[in-house]
Known about the structure:
Layout: E1 2-8, E2 20-27, H1 33-42, E3 47-50, E4 56-57, E5 63-70, E6 75-79, E7 85-90, H2 95-104, H3 120-126, E8 129-130, E9 133-134, H4 135-138, E10 139-145, E11 151-158, H5 166-171, E12 178-184, E13 199-206, E14 209-210, E15 219-227, H6 233-250, E16 255-256, H7 269-275, E17 282-283, E18 286-288, E19 296-298, H8 304-322, E20 331-332
Parallel strand pairs: 2-5, 3-5, 4-20
Antiparallel strand pairs: 1-2, 6-7, 7-15, 8-9, 10-11, 10-15, 11-12, 12-13, 13-14, 16-19, 17-18, 18-19
Helix pairs in contact: 2-6
Bound molecules: flavin-adenine dinucleotide.
Amino acid sequence: MQVEHTVPLSKRTFWGIGGVADTLITVEHIAELPPLWAQLHASKTPCRILGKGSNTAWADAGFRGTVVHLSAAERYWQPQPEGKMLLIADAGVIMSQLVEDTARAGYADLERMAGIPGQLGGFVRGNAEAFGSGTWESLQWVDMCDGAGQLWRIVVTQRPENGVHSRNRAKTSQTPYGAGERYQITSLEDPTAIPHTREILPQLYSYRMSIFKAHDDWGVLRAGFLLSVRDDPEATLQRVQSLSAHRWQTYPPGRTGGSTFINPPGAYAGRLLEEAGAKGQHCGGIEITQQHANFFRNTGHGTQEELLTLMRQYRERVERSTGICLTPEVVLLDEWGRERRDY
Ligand SMILES: Cc1cc2nc3c(=O)[nH]c(=O)nc-3n(C[C@H](O)[C@H](O)[C@H](O)COP(=O)(O)OP(=O)(O)OC[C@H]3O[C@@H](n4cnc5c(N)ncnc54)[C@H](O)[C@@H]3O)c2cc1C
């Protein structure tokens, strides 16, 4: 473990926004996280796990607590019957690298997520996805710890038939949820279920959502993907690399946090914002890009307050003209590491 004090958070996020954190601890092995996490919670020290920071804007006043960065990036391949593969990866794994590795191994399950920035832990929390193919669709289980340092395994037991992406949501009046259960486990080396701790989780994940968003004290430690879509390794890798290159050519350049708002059922947030006149608008150092109205860019010295002001302004305009209330996808944190809800 590496401990640093007075750490500028702007250097740790894609947006380049945020003041100074009191402490930052880098955890290199997932087994180190549960006792540290328990100790921080027991001493009531504000704490937050940070992945690659591609979806996060810290407060301009910084963070009066401890940021925990997981650099743990082990991965294990366990062949399964019928040519399937269980891939177990630590939460600190860079997802774009993992997607390339699965392609090289001749599995195409994750290819549509090629090039999306971030670590596995952030992907699990936000159910990152592209073209309707989400992280949780391929997940078998997630190992996590809670604020008391207890270890749990969450198992996916039920997936919506046609996935959870926005086009499917448009056809139904209800949000489709994946379901699961969780049980406490003895250790990470021997994840045997502890009897009597089984809990049903009827709303485990949905479009750009997971149960982790409702539990800030749950840390993702590692996850198991069941890979089953076999394809030629060279051809799969080529598709992954060209999709990734295409993605980075079409993302608006500069310091952004990806899509600012989630697509509402049956509509695109970017289009709604564009129709509300958002493109090219700015507040201080933050501007809404000309290329994509759902991408908000830091042009140099933008602040979280300016970002929030612009988000509020165009969220209100969209709601006034369409009645649709956009849900932020990006994570804006206050000085105590809590997610801001005052947009
Ligand atoms: C240019 C650009 C394009 C993008 N395109 C897409 C896209 O196509 N599809 C998509 O879905 N997303 C996209 N995103 C958003 C981003 O890639 C995802 O949200 C990604 O999952 C964030 O991962 P991260 O490691 O950067 O998370 P961070 O920004 O570091 O953290 C995000 C949240 O997850 C929490 N977190 C991180 N690690 C853990 C952990 N181990 N346990 C518990 N909580 C944790 C943090 O506390 C925070 O609340 C894009 C972002 C950018 C900048």
